[in-house]
Amino acid sequence: MALTELLQTLEDEARQRVNDLLAQARAEADRLRRESAAEGDRLRGVALHARETELRADAARRLEAARREATRQVLEARAAALGAIRARAEERLAAGAGDPAWLPRLRRDLAEGLRYLDAVPVVVEADAALLGELRAAGGGRELRFEAATGHHGLVLRSADGALTVDASLEARLERAWPALAMDLVRRLEEGP
Question: 83 partner at 20 to 30 Å CA-CA among 22, 34, 101, 188?
Fold first, then answer.
């Protein structure tokens, strides 16, 4: 084989080797690009999932805070409505406390209270306008009648102050208020 042919064969082999190496390098580069793209997609997916989880947790916290705030506002509004209703009830009771229409009830309260305070001297406090009518309902017992101050209706107490029967309108409302308030809340929630 001649030197020219040998050189040609070596050049052909070198060229083939270079082409093979280039093809391998291109294939490796394509593989690395695909793996890199897949890894990038995976990392983006992981990052997106983490961000989505973070955003969902934040949304859940904000939603819960909004629910708590709404509940607080509803409870405050309900308390304000109940307070206004109670204040109006107290005003109406106070305005009508001296009305003679209360006398039958006050007489019954007096009789029941006197049974409770049996055999002790009793002080009867009632609205000044009704004291005269109540004196007659004393049933012959020794009673001291006084005009009520700070309450309306009827309060009986032993002369020594040890026992008290509070049948005042304010005390009745105070005792009845929890049940009334629950009924009012139920009605407020049901709406018109």
Answer: 101
Per-residue pLDDT of the chain (192 residues; tens, 9 = 90+): 687 887 788 788 888 888 888 888 888 888 889 988 888 888 899 999 999 999 999 999 999 999 999 999 989 998 999 999 999 999 998 888 778 888 898 889 988 888 888 878 999 998 888 888 888 776 667 789 999 888 888 999 998 989 999 999 899 999 999 999 999 889 888 876
- Determine which helix (DSSP H) or strand (DSSP E) holds 75, and give its type and residue range: helix 3-96
- Distance from C-alpha of 149 to C-alpha of 176, rounded to nearest angstrom: 22
* Burial class of residue 154 (count of CB atoms within 10 Å of its CB; 0-12, 13-18, 19+): buried
Instruction: With beta carbons less than 8 A apart as the criterion, state whether 122 and 157 touch.
Output: yes
Q: How many residues does the chain have?
A: 192
118, 142 Cβ separation under 8 angstroms: no
Residue 46, both tokens: 């992981």
In our burial notation (b when 16+ CB lie closer than 10 A, e otherwise), range 44-54 reads eeeeeeeeeee
Threshold 0.85, pTM exceeds: no
Q: Distance (Å, rounded) from C-alpha 160 to C-alpha 163?
A: 8
